[in-house]
Amino acid sequence: MSITSAMFSGVSGLLANAEGINVVGNNLANVNTVGFKYNRMLFADMMYVDVGNGSQLGRGTQIQKIDTVMGQGAFESTEVVTDLAIQGEGFFALGTPAAVAGTAVDPENAYYTRAGTFRLGAEATAGDPLPLQTPTGYKVLDEDGLPIMIPQTFTGAATFTLQKITSVENNGTIVCLYADATGAPRTGYYTGNGTVDDDPTDAQLKKVGYGTVNNPPALSKEGGNLFKSTPTSGTPTIGRANGNNSKIFSNSLEQSNVDMAAQFVKMILTQRAYSANSKTITTADEMTQEVLNLKR
Known about the structure:
Mean pLDDT: 91
Order of helices and strands: HEEEEEEEEEEEEEEEEEEEEEEEEH
Shape: elongated
Helix content: 10-25%
């Protein structure tokens, strides 16, 4: 009975470590994925059987949890103003590609990301605002949960036409450059719901949304650099970065937090563990053969 149990203990080790190498492989595959957070596998021993005299025999190992490690990744400087990175534990909040101007997205229905590769998208019809969005069309939300829509024109002493976004400040303020028909420049500050103002108060400004989650490792990975809230992660909130311990950096992208050296060490250990468990099975098989050889 004990020899057979040893085989099944070895099998449990093979199965668990096979999944372990899958986790390591996924981490290494995403070493260049912007905003990626690596996973680690946590093992747990399985049930025990009492064998008398206060002694117990184990029955192998199992996967306890595949954990997400949310540590900060390094920043890469870029030449694109709308490449954004977050310093702090927050996330950029996103609406789906179907999100429309003027309609707030509920924080529980929003997506969250650390990958700030944002671009101005195409307007729905001529004259509509350019949405700020991800390469796959998910719309960036402001502090009120509204999709950020940059207007193509605004009217002051003259009609000014959008030239480009010039900067995104540490607190999430979006600054745009406009020009009139003569080329005279005018600075516009995003004030929400598809509007800008050349001299707004701070209360009028609508800044890039900064999502916070009570338990970030419990977020669900949805693929495409997106996270979604779960009952375990808690209800997210969307506000603004304070510019101190939570900041948004323009011309920057947060890189994957995968440490290649650490992952290669983990790969070696997982490979050796897999090999050791296979030896447990073959050794138990040899012991069974010895029992069978007792009767010739």
